Amino acid sequence: MVIDMTQLFSFYKRFTYAQNGGSYGFFSLLNDYMSAIVEEVYINHGDVLKFSHNDLLIMWKISRNEFIARIIRHVIMTAESIQKTIAALKNEVTPIPKLSIIISMGTAVFSVIGDDRCRNFVICGGSIQDIKYTRRVCLPGDIVLCESAWQYCVPSHYEYVLKDADNVKIIKVLEAPEEILMARDMGIEEDIIELAKSPSHVSILSDVSVEQEIRATHFRTRVSVVDALRRRIGMYLRSYMVTAVLMQIDNEQSLAYLIEIRNVTVVCISIIPFDCTVFELISLTDEIYKTIQNIIESYSGLMCLVNLFEKDISFIIIFGLRSLNSENNNILNGVLSACQILKEVKHIIGIKAILIGVSCGLAFCGIIGHIVRRQFMVFGHCVDMAISLMMISYDKIYCDYNIVLKSTLKRERFRRHGIKTLRKIGKCQIYEILDEPLKTEVLSSLEYKYPLLGRLNEIEYFKDLLDEIGISERRYSGLVIEGIERSGKSRILDAYVTIVKSREIKLVQLPLHPSFAEKSYSVIYHILLQIFNAENCISISDREKVLINYLSEIVEPENLCYLNYIMRVQFPKSNTYCEETDWQRYKKMIDIFEKILNEIIGYVCILLDDVHYMDPFSWQFLSAILSNKHIVLVMTMLEPVSWDTLTQIETGISQEKRLKIKSLNSLNAEYLAAFACQFLNVIAIPETLERILSQHSKNGIGWCEAFLMSILQVKALDIISISPQEVQKYNLVFPDPSFLSKIPVYLTPEELAPPLQWMQMTTLNVCVPSKKPKTVIEANRDVIEDIQPEMFIKFTMEYSAGLIQTGQSLHAIKFLMNISEDINEKNREKDQFENIFIKEQWLILIGDAYIESGNYSEAKKYYTEAVILKTEIPQNMRTICYNIIIEKLRYTIKGIYKIFFKNEEIPQNDEKVGIAIALQRFSMISMIQNNKKAANLAILQSIRMIFKNSSTFLEKGNIYLCAVDIFRQLNDIGMIEDIEKMILLVIRNKTATAGWIKSEEIIILVWKKHINEAVDLLFELYYTSGEDVDYSATTWYYALCLEFLLDASMNLESYSSCNKFYTFINTKLKTCVSRDPTSLLHLNNALLIWQLRMNVPLNNELVKDIEEYVKDVASYNFSEIYCSIKGLESYLLILYRRLDIPQSYDLFDRTYYAKKIIKFLHNVSIYFPFVKPFTYFLESYMRLLRGRKSTSQACMAKAEKYAIAQGNKMVIAWIEQNKRTWEVDFFNNMAEYWVEFVASSEGILWQEIHLLKPIAWSTILYPYPHPKYNY
């Protein structure tokens, strides 16, 4: 029997981002279902043999004295019983899984594969092959019999339908069967009683003693387990088990502690053999298994699953698991091992094809099953992705983009195969991993080049410029080469490249095209990309990382936002930036640009081709830096036809006196034959061709090039190889050999020896007139259809929205303004809702672009126009206040749920949604301009409309976040609580939510004693920290780990590792945590508190000034507020130390500072109630230090009251512990217990805390020490 577990195992999607209990919730759900299935199987005398990511393989052994028909009937009834049992298990998180069951009958061969290092077993045979074919017609919830099983059944005993010619679906068993005589009693109970008389060994099944587990079961287990225990052969079975499981057993720890979220790399392999017998298949599988095991052993991989009952020979290998050497790059290990596996396994005789898929990501790892049959499994999106990639590969290795991005291999090791649709995944970018780097065919013209013809003056001009680089009083800072189309301007720049490289000057080379003129700062953007070596950065975060790395020493973190437009990044805008004018921002950008050129790069030569395509903003930058003595700028441009038709760029370049302008003349006639030879790659041309070029080209290179191209198209010339003796047969012209001798791209002609004359060569490549000229075939003309205005407008708006998201707001404004006439004309033609909706979107997009550019007045103008398209904005202040009261009365009288959720099935009203979004934007800009009344009314109306009419979570979420920000600035805490209820209900009803990994979420989960969920999010934060633009996420990880050790006795990372990371960060500038500098202050506080508790010498750098903890919190910032709480704790512990020092000089200063922080926190708690239990608790300790026990107890009572009201179980446990410590002398040793046991790396496991109640939890928390002296 095979049970399809696909639906059940795919439930992991509902537990991501710590939802519904996180990893522990997921494995608890799985084990509930798996226990029910395993019990049904063993109660009915079956045996669970193999687990896979899709199926469960179960077997009933048929003895000689049993009827096959009765066994099959019994198995069918067991299948029905399993489905009924599963249907009876209900939960609030997932729907009831529909398990399809396939039943076959026949022989099966069980065989062990592997060697002493690692073993596994496989099962194959005719019955297994039947299952493979039948699964294709089996639907969820079906019970399907293969032909091998159905032939032994009596059709009248069942209600059934035919699935196809070979398979039957059982709907119902009609008659009650006769008593089935099963196999005789095998004496298992006696075996167990006998085992109970002797000492038990560590079980290979579970984490408690063997006798207790087996006695707990009310059904028969497989005889082999009992025999193994009787014979004490557990040591021989270790090679079958996962290393992590063995470590848990050896340490006598629960296997439940293996449940976790980890960042893993998954390699899925499917091997298709040639037709062979069962025993040949087993032998082949054994050889493949040993080969793969030898390979992955050196890469720290684990063979997780091996089976033959799904698709051919299947293997799943995991890299990055616990107990393996996961310090190395597990993604790189997975890729390298996959390449080696493909190379070595393909050479094994008997293999037809091999399919390999590789993916990486976060996965759920843990033990599933029942007490008598368990399996270590890994579930997650990366596993599904690897399996899906494997299914479409054939003798190749396919991977997703995550592997390409994170493997640290060069891009040449990957070949892109475009977007393909994968099973279970959908559309995805597919890449092939190559064993050898992708070798690009390099043309000889790229390695060698012909010398430049007739441009010695231009070369000398450029050399003179380079000679003067670095001189303050030089006359020219750059050179402009003017010429007509196809006159050789780009060819001159190629020659300049060789000269620049020979002088070891930083080179920036950029060919321009028409699209550059459309995008603001596009030229400067590409120049800086080359300066920072960031051409391969394809995302905003990648570019931000590069900028932080290069600019950390010369640009302040708050000034990085000035690079947003130029570098298409999204650094947070500083207050100074928002207050400045466009001209002030421009001057600041110029200053930063000059700093980059002066302090980072040194001498720079910038070569720009076709600068007539340059955008005006980039030219302003380039003209501003021409006075920089470290820069040489060389540009090529088309020669102006008339001074009256000059563009802004051409006019600016022509008037720039720091640029030397040189016009290109036509080539001298002596070079025309040489040019034709270079173009045709020969050393001689026909005399007739040379005469035509001389008479008709007027020495123009463009004409010569076009003519030569045309005669090649009509095949009027043949290129042949002849000997010098055959030259006299043809009328040929041989130019000067020095013009035709190719030279390496890194050398100049002067560095080479004189070339050979043509008479000295053995073979000559020449061109001669063709004997069979052909007529020119006219090329087909492309038919360009008119783009419909509606499609053009839609495309432009979508493209502009993308530009805004990628930091190109000015370019987006230009695009959107270009379609304004089309939109207005469309509205005049048809007054339809759709047209109004398009204009509304257009207005909002322009407003968004102006917001990104910091132009708030223009943004408000367009947001206002978007609102008044469908509604009115009250202008009278009295009317606004009246409408605000009306809106709030709706919430008060009817209630939140009746207003917003009385009918969840109403369809989305696009018109209302559009108004809601426009009102949200209007409220946001009104709040920025301090128009609070208008902002209040607009956001109230927006909330009402969006939650009643929209079914899109993203739209609701954006408006919710804006509303929270506005109500906090308005100090309207009541409305915040109301809309929080609304969004929480939306989240609860959402089937698949995105994850928000923020520090406050993790901290609050610990307060609420959701330990497993908090750890899941914490590990996820760590594993995804590599995608952060700086070290903020990693710093948060170490800060939270140490805080959880201090506050909750959760041992995740040791103090030494956190301190080591702090030392690493401290050697860098603050820009390494510029995204969230509060993370570093949290880590600082945690290290300080640990040193104070452990009574070790303090690092004085960790003690921060009082201003760090009492600064104004303008808007809601949980991290900063909680940082003040930890700062108060550190000050109190310092104060406790000072009590033991006679005549301590700063005792009263510390007291004053502690009082100041307490006062600050009391003020903050008015708006943020979560602060109250912490503030009163720490204030209680301060009063205890001062000997005021009565007021200390009063503060403690208040802290307990607020902690209970808020459900803060951590503070409740903390209070309980300190009550004992402060009141009873017997408990004064609890601090020493925490210091000696809990704070060490061998302390309490965080998994154990999850099972503790708050009272028991309190016994392992740190108690603040009772003072020996008071003051």
From TrEMBL:
Among its keywords, does the record have Acyltransferase? no
A Gene Ontology biological process term? cyclic nucleotide biosynthetic process
Instruction: Check the record and name the Gene3D superfamilies matching this protein.
Output: Nucleotide cyclase, Tetratricopeptide repeat domain
Annotated TPR repeat ranges: 840-873
Can you cite an annotated GO cellular component?
cytoplasm
Start and end of every Guanylate cyclase domain? Answer: 255-390
Please give the InterPro entries that the UniProt record associates with this protein: A/G_cyclase, Nucleotide_cyclase, TPR-like_helical_dom_sf, TPR_rpt
Q: Name one GO molecular function term.
A: adenylate cyclase activity
Keywords recorded for this protein, A-Z:
ATP-binding, Lyase, Nucleotide-binding, TPR repeat
Q: Which domain of life is it from?
A: Eukaryota
Protein name per its UniProtKB record: Adenylate cyclase type
